[in-house]
Amino acid sequence: MRYLRDLARRPMRTTLTILGITIGIWALVVFGSMASKIDSLVKGGSTYYADKLTVTDASGSMGGFASAPLSLSVRDQVLKVDGVTAVLPAVMLLMDSGSSAVTMGVPPMITGSILGSDQGHETFQTRAAEGRKLTPADDGTMVTVLGSDIARKDGLHVGDTVEMRGHQFEVVGVLEPTLTAPDQAASVPFQAAQLLLHESLPPVVRAQVAPDDLITTMTVYPAAGVDPELLADRIDAAVPNVATMTGKDFDQQIGSATSILNAILVGIALISLIVGGLSVVNTMAMSIAERTREIGIKRAIGGGRGRIVRELVTEAALIGFVGGAVGLLLGAVVVLVANEAGRTSGTVLFELTVGTAVSAMVFSTVLGAIAGFVPALHAARLDPVTALRYE
Amino acid sequence: MALLEGRNLRKTYRLGRHNLVEALRGVDVTIEPGEMVAIIGPSGSGKSTLMHIVGLLHAPDKGDPAPELRFDGRDMTGLDEGERTRIRAHEMGFVFQDFNLVPTLTAMENVMLACDYAGVRGEAARAAARDALELVGLGDRAGHRPSELSGGEQQRVALARALVNKPRLVLADEPTGNLDSERSADVLATLRRFNQEHGQTFVLVTHDPEVAEACDRVIRVRDGRIREAPAAAAGPVATPAAADPAAPAATGVPVASAPTPGASPEPDHGGAGAPS
């Protein structure tokens, strides 16, 4: 294209200008992907918790995760509360006893629950990519079904044996990716989870409780038409030493924090993009000024103003486009590498959506065009004779 | 019908807050088709301004008496900038002093630029451009950039560009200004050839008397007004001192002789080019 020849007049200058856009777009892609990932995790969680309650020990939960032990007998008390149709007791604990529960991503977890106790109310379903899911027949055995990230990280397949918290488990299934928390979890039969939880308790506590009485959370399903908020209050009133989290609580805890984070991330990216855009304005202004005589010739021999503006704006848009393409490419590389590296510790931080990619390209091209517009207009408006005489 | 007729052409430029320059103070000019006319004058005489108005690059100042400008019989004074640009694109050709080719385009592409502005694209444009370059003798250099061409060759490319759309009028501003005498002679010869073989109308602005010599007619401009001397069919350009009292047009020199039939009382008032 002819436009490339004009850009090639001053290769260094063009390169630096393109670099300005590239950096801005790169930031937009990387940070935007981070924000996307956070959004989908949050949305996944929000949807998941919208129609159910999570009952835990009174110390409360962070985003639905709690590790303080609760007695299984509490289930019966909860079941008696008016408006409760089903209760699913579960045990959740960190797979790696050393890591903290508060990370940027979702840490790897071991979960076990009394299968079937939701009585069909649970709407979120996972699917097996390999092998099968757990059934009540697995009770008492040491088998496990792995989430997609766990399996991939260690290259585990059905038939392999995996050691978790000092015990050997046979892999009987691997789940399809969900892009949310289950990818980072290994589910085991309820008793096995209880056993592991028991072993993780401090010796003093361990001596006083039996493994088969232990749970960490209960998922409570409201009856049709029952307001979850009201039900939560009733449960907290009726059952001592528990805390009940609703979907709204989840949204509040997580939602506000993430939207601030999102705003900061995208804000940083936009600022760098604006700087990149100004760099295009500057470059186009210089480049156009240097071509004043040439523009004068074109106008004199019959090139209309609109035509000249279109040519120059196209050139500027091309700078934006190339800068955007390179920025997108580099951003995608960073996202890919960071995600792969982060899978081992459960910090899969980025989700590069098609939407982000397309927006990045459109944004950079339009930014280039806009940046070139004012210098172009100014040049086209010059009197051709004056332009011709410009030294 | 005259190709171009202008009356009462005035132009004043503002160069800064307190600096007004009266470049043209009331000029009448007529160009006939097939003519090769030189507009000659010293620096600052207004000759370039006259060319700019004739070439529709600038519009003449309004005022009293009202300016008239007719190109091919059509009134040009009421046109806006866009319309004038369109006419320049389709019906005029320009050659400037400093070659004025786009450096990033090849000779062929430079010529095709003029086609593009006149709405001719693709294969038709390529063919026309090739022909134009052949005509100026640069058919084999079509793929070269200006930096690869000599000064004279660049000027010829500019000429090809000016001619490619077969314009009614070609205007050249100091076409030999930056060339040595040999190249100048080449360019002038080419212009003459086009004028004689193809009937192409040329208006050349110059301060070089040799260029004037090559033309059919000379319009002399000084201080924003016209004094004009028709070039004799054979022989040197008549100088003011040797003005023939029987010549139809006024010479504008205050010679102490009886006013000639066509002369106006004020020697400084420009007369029409052709006796009318």
Describe the structure.
The complex is a heterodimer of chains A (391) and B (276). With 391 residues, chain A is α+β, with helices and mostly antiparallel strands. In chain A, 54% of the residues lie in helices and 15% in strands. In chain A, strands 1, 3, 4, 5, 6, 7, 8, 9, 11 and 12 form a ten-stranded mixed β-sheet that branches. In chain A, strands 2-10 form a two-stranded antiparallel sheet. In chain A, helix 2 runs antiparallel to helix 8 (247-290) and helix 2 packs across helix 10 (305-342). Chain B is an alpha/beta fold and 276 residues long. In chain B, the strands form two sheets. Chain B has a six-stranded mixed β-sheet. A four-stranded antiparallel β-sheet of chain B has the order 2-1-4-5, covered by helices on one side. The radius of gyration of chain B is 19 Å and the shape is globular. Helices cover 29% and strands 22% of the residues of chain B. At the A-B interface, helix 1, helix 9 and helix 12 of A face helix 2, strand 6 and helix 3 of B.
Order of helices and strands of chain A: HHEEHEEEEHEEEHHEEHEHHHHH
How helical, in percent, are the residues of chain A? 40-55%
What structural category characterises the helix and strand content of chain B? alpha/beta
Count every beta strand of chain A, where a strand is a DSSP E run of 2 or more residues: 12
Beta-strand portion of chain B reads 15-25%
Chain-averaged pLDDT of chain B: 81
- Biggest pleated sheet of chain B: 6 strands, mixed
**What are the segments of chain B in which pLDDT stays under 50 over at least 5 consecutive residues?**
231-276
Structural class of chain A: alpha+beta
Distance between the termini of chain A: 28 Å
User: Could you say which overall geometry of chain B the principal axes of the C-alpha atoms support?
Assistant: globular
Strand content of chain A: 15-25%
Q: Could you tell me the radius of gyration of chain B in angstroms? A: 19 Å
Shape of chain A: elongated
Main β-sheet of chain A: number of strands, strand sense, barrel status?
10 strands, mixed
Q: Within the largest sheet of chain B, what's the order of strands?
A: 6-7-8-3-9-10
Low-pLDDT regions of chain A: none
| Oligomeric assembly | heterodimer
Percent helix range of chain B: 25-40%
> Hey, which two chains have the biggest interface?
A-B, 21 and 29 residues
Q: Compute the number of strand runs of chain B.
A: 10
